[in-house]
Amino acid sequence: MIQTNKKVVRRLFLEGFSRNDANVLREVLHPEFTLTSAGAVAKDSADRNGSMDTLIDGMHHNHRSFEGWSFTIDHLMAENDHVSVRWTATGRHVGSFMGEAPTGREVTLQGNSLYEMRDGQILRDWVFANQRDFLIALGVGAPPEPEAGAALVRRFWTDIIDAHSIDPVNEIISPDYRQHADGIAQGPDGLKAFLTDTFTASRGMRAEIHDIVSTGEIVVSRTTVQFETPPPGWDPSQTIIDIFRTDGRHLTEHWDTR
Q1: CATH number of the domain encompassing residue 250
Q2: Around Cβ 223, how many Cβ atoms within 10 Å?
Q3: Burial of 217 (0-12, 13-18, 19+ CB in 10 A)
């Protein structure tokens, strides 16, 4: 069954997607098929569930936009009723993908897909594609200016931490903010809950900014956080390296090291 499932997924990419053949998709996709795409299908969104027709329409749109649109399977793995694929798609930008003027350039989109199989067909499809770099190559998107990200990080330390206020969080932090620090839940609400607990359990919290370095999308800050009275188990002074991802309007992701 595992080999059959892998064969079905290979056929989806090499005979269906690469050849723009809707009949292949109708054969390999289960009647109850659903798609959850993080930007691999035009006008789709990370939280939108799509049907077989959504995927077929997206395939046709890709072939209208990119001459010679075809896929290479870089790696394929299967276990039980799931198949995972790392893939690369290439084509020449000859038609509008998202309202932009065609550039005539060769473009590449890379991504990972996870499939759930049922009865020798694909039941569910989760797609995660490098949409940002792809859109930049089309001239649709551009990386944020370094100054914008640096300003957001500076506001994080001054307007939130030094001011002991969670009020600016919704303005500075993205609604889909991803947190990689232990003990802090995801999203703005998770950050606000953590900060509220920290402010309540401490006195005189202050951040001294030493350096902020921004490449545009990635911003790194080195700060010393001090307390008159720290929360239980915390040091009264600690220097932290924080790494933020930004879209230029909000902080979207965070890691830290001590």
Answers
A1: 3.10.450.50
A2: 22
A3: middle
Could you give the count of Cα atoms lying within 13 Å of 179 in the half-sphere of its Cβ? 17
C-beta separation of 254 from 243 below 8 A: yes
Total domains in the fold of the chain: 2
Q: How many CB atoms lie within 10 A of CB 89?
A: 21
Q: Taking all residues of the chain, what is their mean pLDDT, rounded to a whole number?
A: 91
C-alpha count within 13 angstroms, C-beta hemisphere, residue 102: 13
Beta bridge mates, 254: 179, 244
Query: In this structure, are 97 and 181 located in the same domain?
Result: no
Put the strands of the sheet holding 121-129 in their side by side order. 49-50, 29-38, 121-129, 106-118, 82-93, 66-79
* Alpha helices (runs of H) in 66-182, residue ranges in sequence order: 131-138, 146-155, 169-172
The mean pLDDT of 55-78, rounded to a whole number, is: 96
pLDDT tens string 64-74? 999 999 999 99
pLDDT, tens digit, for every residue of 154-189? Answer: 999 999 999 999 999 999 999 999 999 888 999 999
Same structural domain for residues 8 and 59?
yes
Task: Look at residues 105, 138, 171 and tell me which one is the last residue of a structural domain.
Answer: 138
pLDDT for residue 91 is more than 90? yes
Alpha helices (H) along 33-142: 52-65, 131-138
- Report the candidate in 115, 112, 89 with the shortest Cα–Cα distance to residue 35: 115
What one-character-per-residue DSSP string does 98-122 give?
Answer: SSPPP---EEEEEEEEEEEEETTEE
pLDDT in tens, 99-126: 888 999 999 999 999 999 999 999 999 9
181, 238: one domain: yes
In DSSP terms, 245 is beta-bridged to: 218, 253
